[in-house]
Inverse folding.
């Protein structure tokens, strides 16, 4: 009797295994083989419509499927990303999201303001690539946010040409902020009413002071730079004089500086009190000859020869014509 | 004058012109015939222009052979005409350029499109071919809804999207099939580049 039971149970087991094998092999695959929708085989107009109906997150995920989908979606960027191509992208939160603020034109009614898009960092990079957006505006509220953004930026820096930072971090210095960005090409730092631009092309680092208040941050001088430019707004107040006096007094450690320019807003700067403020503490020699600058060409007299206190460098202060405007230059040698 | 005193006029009902509805006959590529009202046809810009150009009278419609639609099969055409009949007389939507586009799928359309993806694909082709704007809108909206919340890997499965490797392989195969000599030249060029030659010639 037990033998018969065992035989019967074996028979059942064998039958069960056989049926299971048949179902797995033939039935299940057929059930799973539901006809799929070949999106890329749709007519172009229909494909475009499908894209336009999709949510931005879905579009970005779709574009991540392959190079082909990325390129195809790029074709539609004019319609889908039209509003974003000239916008500044704001990095606000440090919770793994980028917020996109599309700048609205004045013609629009106030109530038509769209809420900012929130995207995960991976999709944000894809968004920037698809939209061709090359300017990122950053609002940094704390050190963690700064580090988050810098690490994101350092991975995707090829997508971005310039970064706008609104620095409101009390204890952070300009130097702290800028050194976070490994390969920055153009960094615009806005600190209160101050605005600084940092440019880097082929390792030639330059700083542009767009506008600033009475004083510059001390750490500013620590940044390596080969050229510095003061805009007309920054020129008329102390920072320009501070910088020049510091350079002459050798308190600026940067000795790489080769080019110094400033937009001149006064007709005869050399006769102003400001200029005497610069020169009163240093020896200078008036040069009354025309000479040729390697970049700016013929320089008419007078020029003023000055020397750093550490005797390492000398410079010629001069004025030159730049697109019809008079600029101040310093030739360092 | 009171209502009671108003003159009574006998109306000959037969004398009132009754607008006769015209039904056009269409034939799918698998020889299935459909009768579609004139009003329903207006939803399709292509068909509307076609029937206008033909200038059929009621007799022509009955006596002449059905208008053949070569590119669409009977099953798909049935769905298309069902949709057109249901939405006849409705205004054709104009694209306002808003992105993303906002379109609601009505209950009838949702039921009509409760079909397998293969047929949905054909329906979109038909809507595009016959230029039925609203049908194209709702069917594309349905396709777009399939992508909601899906990861790239899931999207590849849903839409049968080839990966980069598959794309490359297909491209190579197509090149080889098209011009074997071009492939040889390319290989020769690569070989020379490896050997350090600056110029191919």
């Amino acid at each position: 009797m037990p033998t018969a039971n065992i035989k019967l149970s074996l028979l059942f087991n064998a039958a069960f295994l056989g049926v299971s094998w048949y179902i797995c092999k033939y039935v299940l695959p057929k059930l799973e083989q539901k006809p799929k929708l070949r999106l890329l085989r749709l007519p172009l107009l229909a494909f475009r419509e499908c894209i336009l109906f999709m949510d931005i997150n879905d579009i970005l995920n779709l574009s991540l499927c392959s190079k082909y989908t990325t390129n195809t979606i790029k074709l539609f960027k004019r319609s889908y990303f039209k509003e974003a191509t000239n916008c500044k992208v704001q990095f606000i939160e440090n919770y793994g999201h980028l917020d996109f603020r599309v700048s609205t034109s004045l013609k629009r009614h106030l109530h038509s303001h769209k809420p900012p898009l929130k995207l995960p960092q991976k999709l944000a990079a894809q968004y920037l690539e698809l939209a061709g957006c090359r300017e990122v505006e950053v609002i940094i509220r704390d050190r963690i946010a700064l580090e988050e953004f810098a690490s994101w930026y350092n991975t995707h820096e090829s997508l971005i040409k310039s970064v706008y930072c609104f620095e409101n971090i009390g204890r952070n210095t300009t130097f702290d902020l800028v050194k976070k960005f490994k390969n920055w090409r153009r960094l615009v730092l806005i600190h209160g009413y101050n605005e600084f631009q940092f440019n880097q092309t082929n390792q030639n680092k330059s700083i542009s002071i767009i506008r600033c208040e009475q004083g510059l941050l001390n750490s500013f001088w620590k940044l390596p730079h080969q050229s510095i430019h003061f805009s007309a707004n920054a020129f008329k107040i102390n920072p320009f004089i501070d910088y020049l006096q510091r350079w002459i007094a050798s308190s600026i450690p940067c000795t790489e500086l080769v080019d110094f320019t400033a937009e001149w807003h006064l007709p005869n700067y050399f006769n102003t009190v400001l200029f005497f403020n610069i020169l009163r503490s240093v020896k200078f020699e008036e040069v009354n000859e025309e000479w040729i600058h390697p970049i700016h060409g013929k320089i008419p007299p007078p020029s003023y020869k000055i020397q750093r206190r550490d005797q390492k460098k000398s410079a010629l202060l001069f004025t030159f014509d730049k697109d019809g405007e008079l600029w101040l230059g310093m030739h360092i040698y | 004058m009171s209502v009671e005193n108003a003159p009574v006029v006998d109306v000959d009902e037969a004398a009132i012109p009754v607008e006769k509805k015209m039904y056009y006959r269409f034939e799918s590529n698998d020889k299935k015939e459909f009768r579609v009202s004139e009003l329903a046809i207006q939803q399709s810009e292509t068909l509307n222009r076609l029937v206008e150009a033909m200038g059929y009278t009621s007799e022509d419609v009955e006596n002449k052979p059905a208008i053949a639609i070569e590119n669409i099969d009977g099953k798909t055409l049935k769905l298309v005409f069902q949709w057109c009949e249901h939405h006849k007389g409705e205004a054709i939507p104009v694209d306002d350029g808003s992105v993303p586009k906002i379109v609601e799928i009505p209950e009838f359309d949702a039921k009509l499109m409760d079909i397998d993806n293969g047929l949905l694909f054909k329906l979109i082709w038909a809507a595009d071919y016959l230029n039925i704007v609203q049908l194209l809108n709702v069917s594309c909206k349905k396709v777009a809804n399939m992508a909601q919340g899906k990861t790239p890997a899931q999207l590849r499965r849903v839409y049968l999207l080839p990966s980069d490797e598959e794309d490359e392989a297909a491209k190579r195969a197509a090149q080889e099939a098209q011009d074997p000599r071009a492939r040889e030249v390319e290989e020769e060029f690569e070989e020379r580049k490896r050997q350090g030659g600056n110029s191919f010639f």
